[in-house]
Each structure stands twice: as structure tokens, then as C-alpha cells.
């Protein structure tokens, strides 16, 4: 009897509110960033990121996004691939706030168990993050400073700031 082994891979899933819904979490983040002097920012939209690593196929990751991680009425999900963002004159930014690898991730552990309960392969690891899509002009250094003060804790988070697609 041969056992088929699924190759190890990593999938990145983003779950966000549909554009027609008000993003209260984004409005709160915008207020915090305005308080840090980032008053030229006009809008913030928040999404959740899930990095699933292990013997999970792309189809199984897509099924997880659809059935376990998102609400079909209010949210949309997509699989992300690493791409380099074009320069856009600093009008759109993407900020990802991840827990450091040494910090436990209870939400990730819950997703890992839920996948196994749903009959999907149990991933080796699931890490979660918040992603902020910011509209408005800012310089990278000023934005990074504001993010560290308002949206992240340097003891437990790592932050990735990049220019985003408009």
C-alpha cells in the first residue's frame, strides 16, 4: 500500500471586508495614525492575513479561506503571491503587523485545529497578522515611526511597510 504525501508548501491568504462595508477597525487605526501626525492619510482598510505552512495544497488552502476564514456575505478572500509593488508616489501603503516567530499565535493555533477538524490536512504552522492598506501621502520613515507607536508593539511584533498597488 502506498501513501501519497502532500509536498510542504506555504500559502498566504488575505481576508478583508468587501468595499461596500464600513471598516470600523480601519477608522480606528486611521484615528490612531492621525494622532501620531499622519494627518494626510485619508483612509485605512484592515484585513487579516493567514500564513499556512505544511502539507496543504493550494486547493485545500482556498477551501480553508472560503469555509473557515471568511464570511461570504461581508468578506472576500484571496490567495496572495509575493509580487513587487510599483512605486506610486507614496499615495498608497501596505503595513503588515505580524507576531514575531517566538511569540505564540493562539488565533493561528485555532485555525490549525479547525482545519484538522474539517477533515483537511493539519498544517505544520499557521501564523496570523493584520494588514493595513493606507491611502494618502506619507514618507516611509514618518509612517514607520507612527506605525510602531500606534499599531504595533516592538516586543512582540514585526512590521513590514511597503508601497501598495492603488
Question: Secondary-structure map with pairings?
Answer:
Blueprint: E1 9-17, H1 24-35, E2 41-54, H2 58-69, E3 75-80, E4 92-99, H3 106-117, E5 125-136, H4 140-150, E6 157-163
Antiparallel strand pairs: 1-2, 1-3, 2-5, 4-5, 4-6
Question: What does this entry look like structurally?
Answer:
- The chain is α+β, with helices and mostly antiparallel strands.
- It has helices at 24-35, 58-69, 106-117, 140-150, and strands at residues 9-17, 41-54, 75-80, 92-99, 125-136, 157-163.
- The protein has a single domain (9-163), classed as Phosphoribosylformylglycinamidine synthase subunit PurS (Mth169, Chain: A).
- It contains 4 helices and 6 strands; from the N terminus they run E-H-E-H-E-E-H-E-H-E.
Radius of gyration: 17 Å
Helix and strand pattern: EHEHEEHEHE
Tell me what the CATH architecture is: 2-Layer Sandwich
Number of helices: 4
Number of domains: 1
Main beta sheet: strand number and arrangement?
A: 6 strands, antiparallel
Structural class: alpha+beta
**Total strand count, please?**
6
CATH superfamily: Phosphoribosylformylglycinamidine synthase subunit PurS
- Helical residue percent? 25-40%
User: Overall mean pLDDT score?
Assistant: 91
Oligomerization status of the protein chains: single chain
List keywords for this structure.
alpha+beta; 166 residues; 4 helices
Task: Summarize this entry quickly.
This protein is α+β, with helices and mostly antiparallel strands.
Amino acid at each position: 500500500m502506498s501513501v501519497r504525501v502532500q509536498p510542504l508548501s506555504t500559502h498566504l491568504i488575505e481576508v478583508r471586508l468587501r468595499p461596500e462595508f464600513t471598516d470600523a477597525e480601519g477608522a480606528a487605526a486611521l484615528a490612531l495614525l492621525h494622532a501620531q501626525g499622519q494627518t494626510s492619510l485619508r483612509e485605512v482598510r484592515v484585513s487579516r492575513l493567514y500564513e499556512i505552512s505544511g502539507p496543504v495544497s493550494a486547493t485545500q488552502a482556498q477551501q480553508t479561506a472560503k469555509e473557515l476564514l471568511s464570511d461570504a456575505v461581508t468578506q472576500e478572500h484571496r490567495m496572495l503571491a509575493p509580487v513587487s509593488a510599483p512605486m506610486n508616489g507614496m499615495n498608497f501603503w501596505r503595513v503588515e503587523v505580524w507576531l514575531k516567530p517566538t511569540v505564540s499565535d493562539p488565533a493561528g493555533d485555532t485555525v490549525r485545529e479547525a482545519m484538522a477538524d474539517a477533515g483537511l490536512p493539519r498544517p505544520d504552522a499557521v501564523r496570523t497578522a493584520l494588514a493595513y492598506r493606507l491611502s494618502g501621502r506619507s514618507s516611509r520613515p514618518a509612517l514607520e515611526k507612527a506605525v510602531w507607536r500606534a499599531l504595533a508593539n516592538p516586543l512582540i511584533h514585526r512590521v513590514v511597510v511597503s508601497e501598495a498597488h492603488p
